[in-house]
Amino acid sequence: MALNIPLLQAPDAPGGRIPSPFTGEVYILSRTAMELAYTDATHRRSSAAKGVLFMTTQRLVFLPEDPAKAGYASIELPFRGMTGEHLHQPIFSCNNLTASCAYYDGMPFTGELSYKIVFKNGGIGVFLPLFNRCLGAARQAAAAAGGGGWGGGGGGGSPPRAPRQTRGPTSGARATCRAPLPPSTRPTRRACT
């Protein structure tokens, strides 16, 4: 987990900015009209910040619409440190995803950060299969590396330093993006008669 990560100017992106990519990272999707509220051992956000959520092959990144009001310009939630994820589908309000995430060294948080992402304009049908695929790939990579986990996941070890910012997708990232979406998420075409 990290606050105020480097951003790139992108005039055609929602909000005009995107997170600076890591080595081997590929952007998968972005969602506008999202809300994020978070809690850690020392601080609770009383009101959710509205903004844009980006999903990549390595992390979720939230960019608030009004950084001054939110108190941060961006917040990164890496798949590798994510635990306790749960999708809530309440009857009388918006779908939301709750989870916890470990922090990177040097961040102003203690322990794990718990967060809630609210889908104000829908989109969970496309988001969820991709989220599960990326989260599973991150966990497989962590298990293969023998790192187990870090942060509150019980795997031991200390939190990692934030990855370096560079470009260039790896074969694993390409495979994640090339995998077909479930039939219900493919665009449909209607013929008018």
Automatic annotation (TrEMBL):
Region: Disordered, residue numbers: 146-193
Listed name of the protein: GRAM domain-containing protein
A molecular function GO annotation: transcription coactivator activity
Compositional bias per record (Gly residues), positions renumbered to this chain: 146-158
InterPro entries membership: WBP2-like
Cellular component GO terms held in the UniProt record: nucleus
Superkingdom as given in the UniProt entry: Eukaryota
